[in-house]
């Protein structure tokens, strides 16, 4: 009887050890498979050409400046039209910035987290102005900036190699044209 119990225990122990070892191999296989899938996914992310990357970085920097200046216009603006234009800048450019960030993340493009030196200088210079001087300087800057933006986004919509960034430029262009028209109208109203 003791022999049968000992024999049974030996078989059970061997069976348990084999089961555990088998699971270890299966777990290793699962980890290897997941690693292969991750490597394949990384390899599928196509490198973005330099023009497309430069466009994304410049657009992100400009978009951040528009939001920053829009907030400033809401606080410092004297004219209600300037304040309203600032609110539109914050809303529309925040939305565009979020779309651009999503595209950049998917394509492993590193966008700036803070304003570039030139953009920060514009913000600092404008922040020194007050009253009607602020309104005029802000609307002058918004008119000039949006003329440049429309030109840049129009080129990008026609010439970028990256299809998602090309589509982003194309889809954002009508909003930028609306901003330019609005900036010109607000600027003209300040002269009255």
UniProtKB/TrEMBL annotation:
InterPro entries, alphabetized: DUF4142, Ferritin-like
Q: What is this protein called?
A: DUF4142 domain-containing protein
Q: Which residues form the DUF4142 domain?
A: 52-185
